[in-house]
Amino acid sequence: MRDLIGAEWRKIWTGRAWWAVAAAAVLMCVMADAGFVQQDADKNPGGGSTAEITSTLVQGWFMVELAAAVVALLAVTREFGNGAISRSVLLSGGRGRLLTAKLLAVVGSGAVFALAAGAPAAVSPWLFLAGHDRQPEWTATTTWTLLGVMLTIVVGAVWGALLGLLIRQQVASILVLLVSTWLVGEGLLRLVPAIGRLTVDEAMASVYRGGNENLLPIPWALLVLAVWIGAGTVVARTLFLRRDLP
Fold first, then answer.
1. Which residues contact residue 124 at a Cβ distance below 8 angstroms, ignoring those fewer than 6 apart?
2. Cβ contacts of 155 within 8 Å, gap of 6 or more
3. Any alpha helices (H) in the chain, and if so which ranges?
4. Are 196 and 187 in contact (CB under 8 A)?
5. Which residue, of 104, 109, 147, 176, is most buried by count of CB atoms within 10 Å of its CB?
6. Cα–Cα distance for residue pair 73/56, rounded to 1 Å
7. How far from chain centre, in Å, is Cα 26?
8. Which pLDDT tens digit goes with each residue over 147-175?
């Protein structure tokens, strides 16, 4: 099993797609943090709460979650697209073993993205406030925000892989991921908060303290995420074991 997990791990990092996706995510995070600082400066010319802006700058790195999800999704759908998935099943000794190895490798890749994002997120308050004559104020809330950001990145990677296993087609999977991330969750939260807060993306927002008053409390958000991941894993496993492979 260790060799099988290693093989799946190498598939995730094969090619240059993950470089491009990761670079785009970092650029978005930097632009978001720069915007947060400017908005705070315009809103509080004399200097507002440094504790609040410190946590906000850390929170801005949650967008790496989308990169982790896309990379995991691409790694899964690539094999369905080129027909290599059948060969992978034969070499792995069964569909169940292959699926387990894929998911474990994806969790590992999510952890890599989480650690890679956690470092710049932790230092971002000092970098972005340096030119504004303000010192960051690191609080317990900031620490929990950082941990929430890192957790959602790992969850996002797993969710991306599950979508890839369910849909199988690369372009369709990416479209579903992007539409659900940018439109469905946010739209439902505004129109029907009681339902919108139960979507996977808004549950993630609760964990990294997105700030919307309609979001679930963090313990309930964690439970919702567990349900989404658990249900997605069960459905993806059932379909992977029973559906024909290309």
1. 33, 57, 58, 60, 61
2. 65, 110, 204, 225, 229
3. 2-12, 17-43, 50-59, 64-82, 85-92, 95-128, 140-167, 170-179, 185-191, 193-196, 200-207, 218-242
4. yes
5. 109
6. 28
7. 13
8. 999 999 999 999 999 999 999 888 999 99
